Amino acid sequence: MPLDIAAIQQMLVTDGLDGWLLYDFHGSNPIASQLAGLTSGGHLTTRRWYYLIPAQGRPRGLVHAIERHNLDALPGKKTIYVGRDSLDEGLTALLQGVTRVAMEYSPGCAIPYLSRVDAGTAEAVRGRGVTIVSSGDLVQRFEATWSPAQLATHQRASEALYRIKDRAFAAAAHAVKNGTPTTEYDIQQLMVGWFAEEGLVSDSAPVVAVRGNAGNPHYLPTANACLSITADEILLLDLWGKLAEPGSVFADITWVGFMGRQVPDRYSRAFGAAARARDAAVALVQEAARNGRDLRGWEADRVARQILVDDGYGDHVLHRTGHSLGEVVHGNGVHLDDYETHDDRRILPGAGFTIEPGVYFEDFGVRTEINVFRSEHDATVTGPSQSSIVAVI
């Protein structure tokens, strides 16, 4: 999607900024590369480049002579540099007349997903009398929001994930009922095949976890390290994917089953707390959207996590409440996080994200994960929400 220079400039004026300075070296700033259209088409980016979108006037760039055409798709004049002296001179000229610019920077690295500009480059910019502020909300609006077409790809991917989830529970139940040995890895590999049938791609095979493995949020079974699936135990499925089409965005869900008919009270209580935490975060996001009120990512995390704390699970929380979704599963938009980081970015219209509170123990874990899309005046959960642990058999 081409950069909307006029819309960016309008936001820069509103935010009191002189410009947005995009910078990358060797892929160190994938956000800038994505915005500049350098993530596909065989572009080589082995040299430093800068691209300044000023609040007023034409954009301008600074590119190395051997990669002089990398920014040709973007409007504005491009200055060519070769050696370090001409780079220094070019950067000074590029920043002439600006005193306050946004970059992919987070004070104190509070949001590491955004903090992509290295300290030396920040020093070079500041050394020219320029103040750097975070580009967080600019990135959200112009790189991390979904178009209507992208929302449609998410919905199709989401529907496919729910079908795969149901097939996985059914396959595990059939094996256990019939006394057929099966493992986490066996079910995972069935799911990988169903991803292909559904036209989904992902950066990883799904999580299939039983017993203590469900207490590890990032556990992945392998052929050589996995547990058998047997009766009367937790079975957690975490699966994420997107359509194999350009511009598609991810869906990401987690459901919990029990390989028996009567779910133990200890498991039910833990899942009930996670579900209440999830629903509290959904209600807060919807209320803010419907009333046109700014809401920050940390606020949604805090309201969800407080429920877990009040229910006695505070020591068993291992991660934030949710993350941005985009063309990569952990997108560049706002995360619902006041735990691992303090994400003070706004939840803006067009944002897609997960809500996924969980609690974890040595012998089991539970998590409930849904996806939410924030429209102009509302927020919608894009698939079914699990109300209780599924009795699979």
> In what range is the share of β-strand residues?
15-25%
CATH architecture of the largest domain: Alpha-Beta Complex
| Number of helical regions | 9
What CATH calls the topology of the largest domain is Creatine Amidinohydrolase
- The CATH homologous superfamily of the largest domain is called Creatinase/methionine aminopeptidase superfamily
The order of strands across the largest sheet is: 4-3-2-1-5-6
Largest sheet: 6 strands, mixed
Along the chain, the helix and strand elements come as HEHEEEHEHEHHHEEEEHHEEEEEE
Number of strands: 16
CATH class of the largest domain: Alpha Beta
Q: Give the class from helix and strand content and strand pairing.
A: alpha/beta
Residues in helix, %: 25-40%
Q: Radius of gyration, rounded? A: 23 Å
Describe the fold and architecture.
By secondary structure, the chain is α/β, with parallel strands linked by helices. It is built from nine helices and 16 strands. The chain has a six-stranded mixed beta sheet. The longest helix is centred in the middle third of the chain and has 30 residues, at 148-177.
Element layout with pairings:
Elements: H1 5-14, E1 19-24, H2 30-35, E2 49-54, E3 60-64, E4 77-81, H3 84-94, E5 100-103, H4 119-126, E6 131-134, H5 136-142, H6 148-177, H7 184-198, E7 200-201, E8 207-210, E9 234-243, E10 251-258, H8 265-291, H9 297-310, E11 352-355, E12 358-360, E13 365-367, E14 370-374, E15 379-381, E16 390-391
Parallel strand pairs: 1-5, 3-4, 5-6, 10-16
Antiparallel strand pairs: 1-2, 2-3, 7-9, 8-9, 9-10, 11-14, 12-13, 14-15
Helix pairs in contact: 6-7, 8-9
